[in-house]
Amino acid sequence: MSRYAVILAGGSGVRLWPLSRESMPKQLIPVLKGKSLLEAAFERLEGVIPPERRWACGGARYETVVRTKIPAIGRYIGEPEGRDTLAAIALSCALVRKEAPDAAVAFLTSDHVIEPVERFREALRAAFATAEAHPDTLMTFGVAPTFAATGYGYLELGEQLRKRGSDPFLQMAAEEAGANAAIRRVRRFREKPDLATAERFVAEGPAHYLWNSGMFVFKASRLLELLAKYEPAIAEAIERIARAESSEEQAALMRDIYPTITKKSVDYGIMEPASQDSDVTIACVPLDLEWKDIGSWNAYGSLADPDPQGNGAMLAAARSPRHAEGTPTAQDRPETLFVESTGNLAVTTDPSHLIAFLGCKDIVVVHTPDATLVCPKNKVEELKKLYPFVSQQHKE
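RESULT FIELD:
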């Protein structure tokens, strides 16, 4: 039975503007010891999935950059425009099924920091073992909440997934997941809650609620069965593209059909209805490791070592399709001065450019050669509101 992995590398990363741009989104910028988040995601699969079965799905315009950074990548599924995670995952499943009808596929993110890597690999093997033993099951990964986040979805957990008789696959899965990470059923997917609800979830503890990591493992054929059941119009569009008999025909169908597919996340389109469907089992492997979603400046700033007043400073890599040896990492510090200031974050691509704070509290300043952002920390999740105005006045 074949195992595949698809790294979801879509999105323009506007919440990390001005460092991340449509021309070079966050997942391609080197931020981890000279490596991009996408490269780290690819290397995280070493020893679990062979390189030729490690694929990525993202904007068609970035394929050359991705292949330059990761020459060993198996296949790059280029989207003419983003249609959210449901379309990306469904198309990937259809193309995997065409190559290996009985394959199980992991869908992984391209903008997370996950450590230690070997513990994640153990969890991934456990998810594959369970999905292969029980082909009707959809596997996901949960993270213990560290605060009442309103920007993440939550998994409401049920009982432990029991072995059926003397099921050697689930026994192996339990062993690979580790003693403290028993596989649990998922009662319900709870999409991004308000603050009061998030606080209640966190108060009830990780035995009841985990953050939804946005990563999954399931049989490609099973996902497509459920897509036809819950979203038949999207299923028909995906099948038309996948039936193409040549790369030229497929490229034409991608241009003509893919942009017409309804934008919808896999959580709303598949996982939420599946969690209420008695014919479907959803199970979760709790991740007992460090997990950071580098999707906003607050999250990015968590990679920095703060001073005693909670001020962080980071030297970021400039946007470039290629990066040279010695690219700065998130731990490098630029020239900064904090006077009577607390809880601030300074990020710059210029090591000689001084950023000074006086009497500031919880402010983010991001300096790049052609744009500078100044924003309260409690507004960084709303940068999508700013970006339309930026795109009108400033050429990327």
